[in-house]
Structure formats: structure tokens, C-alpha cells
UniProtKB/TrEMBL annotation:
Residues 1-29 are annotated as: Disordered. Belongs to the SUI1 family. InterPro entries: SUI1 (IPR001950), SUI1_dom_sf (IPR036877), SUI1_euk (IPR005874). Keywords: Protein biosynthesis, Translation regulation. It holds the Pfam family SUI1. Residues 33-103 form the SUI1 domain. GO terms for molecular function: mRNA binding; translation initiation factor activity. Probably involved in translation. This is Protein translation factor SUI1 homolog. It comes from Eragrostis curvula (weeping love grass). GO terms for biological process: regulation of translation.
Amino acid sequence: MSDLDDQLPSAFDPFAEADAEDSGAGAGTKDYVHVRVQQRNGRKSLTTVQGLKKEYSYNKILKDLKKEFCCNGTVVQDPELGQVIQLQGDQRKNVATFLVQAGIAKKESIKIHGF
């Protein structure tokens, strides 16, 4: 059995480097505000905003977003991501410009994901 152990290569984990980078860069990615669009059914879509600082009142931001863009929305508590703002429709560019104009986030710290 010891001869066999000498011949087998050690277990190689191809994702070990990626996991190490994720854990080290975890603090660096926390300062980004992620604006995503999710396709629902047919032409319907959903815009999600996550990564805002915890010191902000999510409900007040949501109220202003809903009034500004004439859409409905909600704040969802996700166990992994924390609080996430959801808006009806594809509001990615609108939300990004709103966050910059309101001074909530800098333009460089906003990541827009989607199609």
C-alpha cells in the first residue's frame, strides 16, 4: 500500500487559488454596490440593488426610488446578502444615476450587471 501511495500524485484542488483570492478580496468587494436585472417571465424583469452601506435607511431609499421611477418595489432580507432592494422593471441605469446624484454611492463603486 505504501508503494501505491508513492506513485499516486497528491490531490490537486484547482479551485484552491480561487478560494484564497475570494477570501482575501472579500473585504475589497464589499464596498461595491451591485445593480442587477433578473428576468421573470416574458417581458417582465426585476432590478436588485445590493451592497449599500448598513447606515442608510433602505426603506427611505426605496421610497425615493419608487417615487422617482414610478415603479413598485420592496426590501428583501436575504440570509447571505443582507438587505436587498428589489424594483419592478429594468431600472439599472436609472438606479445608478440616482445613487450618484443622491450621494449614496460613487460612480466608480457601482457595478451594473445584466444582459
